[in-house]
Design brief:
Elements lengths: L5 E4 L1 H15 L3 E5 L1 H5 L3 H11 L3 E4 L2 H9 L6 E3 L9 H5 L3 E4 L2 H10 L4 E4 L14 H11 L5 E5 L7 H20 L6 E4 L2 H6 L10 E4 L23 E6 L2 E5 L17 E6 L16 E4 L2 E6 L7 E6 L8 E5 L9 H7 L4 H6 L7 E3 L1
Helix pairs in contact: 1-3, 6-7
């Protein structure tokens, strides 16, 4: 019944979000991150919408994602920054994808493959990929030595979103890395940071020595802050998830509902079955906690979310088979937001959208 689940993406909302974010960080360039199937929104179509909206670059996690864009005809600059051990970067060269490299071995491999240029990835405190400060002298010196045949087009770091103060310390460390590169004669024209939360915290992040900002979640109209909705940031959620009611039945008081009988109604009630479950990416931990909407009414998910179905309690309302259920969408339209579902399973908004199964059909308006 996958075809009955509808995931729709409003490309006008994507374009609106890009315009809002570009204004927020002007005059810096903007990279839209489309990794993880564009945070569940569909990589190729979102990439096209972002390019039409005027982003300067697209960002992906790895070369598989980059090649998917190229094979779909996306020609905008693409950066990929996570690489398997022993990556040769031949695909990057063949598809004109720019790799971000994190160590000398990756730098050497990129040079051997004949890629057009690289970005250097530095770790300023997130403790993930990127060269740490102790590695900078060797890493940067080798980059300088190879610069004639492997231009260093950019330098990047990723912020932790731990706090404005700690993100500020990371920005300071990043500026130190840029200064060190300058001492070796390297002046990358693209010096860029992320993520959405940090970029929106720092009103002047697009000024001075930081001249490109990478936006992920915010580009899709979702807030990276647990205490602020997208509308507060001038953003519009682009994705809405819908499914039909497939079964309606009356349940007497005390009757167990779904696996484990974690829900037994206190009075006679009507339940409606919706053909969406954890195999579709709806987190089982939201069982008996999340809510959905039918028309202008909100209803609670009751009992355990199953692999292919969830149950909602509609009380005595006249719900019928075929009625449209909105799991989440734009709160401005009266729907539950992705952040509401995140709270229901003690997760984060990123998980709600990025976990949506790639097999679900997506449509674009």
């Amino acid at each position: 019944m996958t075809q009955d689940i509808r995931v729709t993406i409003d490309t006008a909302a994507l374009r609106h979000n890009v315009a809002t974010l570009k204004a927020a960080v002007a005059p810096a360039r903007v990279m839209a991150v489309v990794k993880a199937n564009a945070y569940g929104h569909g990589a190729v179509e979102c990439a096209r919408a972002f390019v039409d909206a005027g982003v300067d670059w697209l960002g992906v996690a790895d070369l598989d994602e980059a090649v998917e864009l190229r094979e779909a005809g996306v020609t905008a600059p693409v950066l990929a920054w996570l690489h398997a051990p022993g990556e040769t970067f031949e695909r990057a060269a063949a598809h004109d994808v720019t790799p971000a490299v994190s160590d000398v071995a990756q730098l050497e491999a990129a040079a051997a493959a004949g890629v057009r240029a690289v970005h250097l990835c530095v770790d300023t405190g997130l403790s993930r990929n990127g060269a740490v400060a102790a590695e900078w002298p060797e890493f940067f010196a080798r980059a300088a030595a190879l610069a004639d045949r492997l231009p260093v087009e950019g330098v990047m770091t990723h912020l932790s979103n731990a706090s404005p103060e700690e993100d500020g310390a990371q920005v300071a460390a990043f500026l130190s890395a840029i200064e060190t590169l300058g001492g070796l004669g390297l002046e990358p024209r693209l010096r860029h940071v992320a993520a959405s939360a940090a970029a929106l915290h720092f009103a002047d992040v697009g000024q001075g020595p930081v001249d490109m900002v990478r936006f992920g979640l915010a580009a899709y109209g979702l807030s990276p802050f647990p205490d602020r909705r997208a509308a507060d940031l001038g953003l519009r959620p682009a994705l809405t998830m819908r499914a039909p009611v497939t079964t309606v039945k009356r349940v007497p008081a005390g009757e167990g509902v779904s696996y484990g009988y974690v829900f037994r109604p206190e009075r006679d009630t009507t339940i409606a079955i919706v053909p969406v479950g954890y195999s579709d990416g709806v987190d089982r931990a939201a069982s008996d906690r999340a809510s959905v909407t039918i028309g202008q009414r909100t209803y609670r998910v009751r009992g355990r979310i199953a692999m292919n179905a969830l149950v909602i309690d509609v009380g005595d309302d006249p719900v019928e088979v075929g009625d449209e259920v909105v799991l989440f969408g734009d709160p401005a339209l009266g729907h539950q937001g992705a952040e509401d579902w995140a709270r229901a399973f003690d997760g984060i908004t990123y998980e709600v959208v990025a976990s949506l199964s790639a097999r679900l059909p997506r449509s674009y308006a």
